[in-house]
Amino acid sequence: MRTSHPPQAVCEAFKQAIDDGRTHYENDAGAPRLRELIAERESAARGVNFHPYNHLVVTNGGTNGIYSISRAVLDPGDEVLLPEPIWIPFIEITRLLNCTPVFVPTQHESHYLPSVADLEARVTPRTKMVVVVSPGNPTGAVYDKEKLEEIQEFCLRHGLWLLHDEAYKDIVFGSREQHSFVGHAPNVIGVRTLSKSHAMTGFRVGWVISSNEDLIDRVRLNVAYNVMCASTPGQVAAVAALEKAADYLDEIVDEYGKRMRYAAGRLQEIGFDLHMPTGSFYLFPRHSHPDDIAPRLLEEARVAVVDGRRFGPSGVGHFRISCSVDMPVLEAGLDRISQWWNGEVAAGRVPAHTR
User: Fold this and answer.
1) Sheet harboring 319-322: ordered strands across?
2) 137, 157, 304, 312 - which has most CB atoms within 10 Å?
3) pTM surpassing 0.85?
4) Per-residue pLDDT reduced to its tens digit, 343-353
């Protein structure tokens, strides 16, 4: 299965929108039909009655949603608690807004889940928001209900916003379920996207959702005066994704699970240490090489991975590998990593086995 390609219905809807001349501005909060579909879907999934006009805004992808939320709730000098390793834009958007990212370390041994004690140790009068990325990028960690309850109680205790990045919410494995307080408390904000669930990264369609109507209006203003609106043909394609491509999600989650298990086994055979993620499509192996191996893998083995330190201090000694590529590409990449690593072992630069 080609998970790198969107569902056929999505592509056809996008092309038809162009042929039909639907290439002009849309409503700054999103196309009415798309908002209605999102509200129906989110209400059913979360047990909350979301209004399509008061509780959500369609954004130019998930990153635009994150930026718009941050602009809406942060002031220069504020601090944001970031359990890390964390997706890089959270770090840089915080800095871009003249705010301070405060790293909350997590460990491989605790499956990259933060402790409330570590959050408490870093909260100050300037703290404004806590970010949760679950399922996680780059770690694949999925926060269970108890962990999210602890973090939400912490936020309420200190009067903080809780931003939950749910880009991979639909991509969880086995009996695992991604819990969320989005819609159940006015301090909680959710960010969703079709980029990962329907391979629509280039279509740039996502949404921000919350029961806090005042916040949603501020997010809408930030979208309107930053990007004006999400792409009109992209929103037509998003409607097709939600109406006509329900089976696609089930198929790709099953396929991602197979690839993750395969890649995890290969990486462990090579000698890397990792835990099997329960969500997303990333693996975050730990290594003992003295170098930053990502640039060397790119230059010497022609394999693109992401250096773990890009995701925060806790990512040192790790790298991220994506299993979203099609299986032949994944197999070839792992073959090259294996050959390169064995060469490093033979040269005496790393131990024969690091697990």
Assistant:
1) 282-283, 319-322, 306-307
2) 137
3) yes
4) 887 777 776 65
